[in-house]
Predict the structure.
Amino acid sequence: MKRRDFLATSFMVGGLAGLQPGLALGGTGHWAAQKAKHFFELREYRVASLEKRAVLEKLLAEAAVPAWNRLGTKPVGVFKLADDATPNLWVLLPWEDLSGLATATQRLMADPQFVQAAAPLLEAPIKDPLYERIESSLLWGFDEMPRLALPAKGPERLFQLRIYESHNEAKGQKKIEMFNGGGEIAIFLKTGLTPVFFGEALIGPRIPNLTYMLGFENKEQMDAAWKRFLEHPEWLKLKADPQYKDTVSNIANLILGPAAGSQI
């Protein structure tokens, strides 16, 4: 199998590498101020069956997650739908800079420990791959939530992955402003909606969108937190503010559980 066939993330290698020098500058100004933000790569592995997912899940846990850690991305999140409605897997990779992201595949393929451990994946025949395709998004942390957090650690923990689409860029930026300067993230924290990350989608499907993940110890905690939020007077006031009208055109909501090897 050729290197380019594995974990193909063709969206990032050319364009993003070109952005890195500006982001790496150590001087003053906007880019230097934003250096502490995480970049998040959110992957969805499209898998044909639960049987194949079990094999892929094991290989991600034993080969890919340790290798990604060696590349400097940690903690790595690996998730599956809590109700198994689809055999797909989701992987969340936090990166400190774009150069690490852009060169990740090449560095993985130069890691002999990974190549050996991932042999069943790398050597799968073209007519019987372990996954059908990877769909990736590149996200950039919010001002009010610049980096990944670990709010839920128990054995029954659940995660909500929520994607807020907007019908144009102006409305998308306005919704991000609502979370940041408008105080929506602060209300989340007050009511127990504990975030793992918030990210603006820079590249990927369904743009413009913002994507975030919440973590809970169990379903009861999740339901109670949402009830508090929806009834909170600060939220009722904020959502009635006319400047934030029509900022979201569609919401995707996925309830996920940790897969094998997840560090989140």
